[in-house]
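Closing statement on the S-adenosylmethionine sub-project.
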Amino acid sequence: MSDNVNNEFCHYTVMLNEAVDGLDCQDGKIYIDATAGGGGHSYEIAKRISPNGRLISTDMDIEAINAACKKTEEFSDIIEIVQASYTEVPEIIKAREIDKITGGILFDLGASFHQLTSTERGFSFSKDAPLDMRFNSDDSFSAYDLINTYKEDELANVFRLYGEERFPGRIARRIVEERKKEPIKTTLQLANLIKASIPFSKGKIHPATRVFQAIRIEVNNELKNIEKAIKRIIPFLEKDARIVVISFHSLEDRLVKNLFKYYSSSCNCPPEQLICKCDPRQLEILTKKPIVASEEEVKLNPPSRSAKLRVAKKV
Ligand SMILES: C[S@@+](CC[C@H](N)C(=O)[O-])C[C@H]1O[C@@H](n2cnc3c(N)ncnc32)[C@H](O)[C@@H]1O
């Protein structure tokens, strides 16, 4: 693997150059890396905006914050790494008396490889672990709470909506039956009962894969947070500042595509409304089609196959 893999933290930065090129990094401007992770993108941004630029990177996960600090140590005079949700970027910049993000903001969505493969964090069912899946371990709501408290129809909705699962009702019913006997506590317990509740064809992905993804999205409020963050950040972007989003899930990409479309349209009024009451157009879309990872990158890091990168600029 190339040098954009951080071995200790273990995350392979996806579309490093494409994402940072999308930000149009310029010395002296202010940038936000909303999802610091292992600091791969932050490092490259800092390198390109040195010596007079400024970068604020956020992540909810303290392990990511520590890894990003270490990775970007040589640029510590221009980077600040903050443990927070990217939905709070407006408050973070206001607290630092920054009026506008002059350069741009990057979102590299989803979970890091480190999170997905850390056994004790409960994101994966390759080994047994407590059901957790919180990006921020201080949050009070975990996968355990979801699995043991959501009603049957709520569970089925999560599996259908965020996992595009074909048998959401059967899985939800089985979970509710099992938890009447005793709480469902671990990843393997859950994965095994999902497997037992639906038809499983050999050679296909494990039937729990999609359900685990759905649980992670719900536990961390991922789709709602992306929408909230993009809507809230647009007024804080200076003219020409960029917004770059890498998504890994078709629902995320659709959401980003639709938000960009909405904010780049001159009018979103319903056809029956005679007088337009829309705010002026906010964004110009710079990627008519999403950018995808190169063949070389997919060979080196197969999960990059599902990444889609979209760029817009403030007008
Ligand atoms: C794909 S990783 C980012 C990897 C990073 N770009 C790199 O190069 O190492 C996504 C990160 O987003 C973080 N994250 C997810 N939701 C977040 C939110 N609402 N606010 C801040 N960080 C979030 C996760 O904790 C994870 O570390």
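The mean pLDDT is 93. With this model delivered, the sub-project is considered complete and its resources will be redirected to Aim 3.
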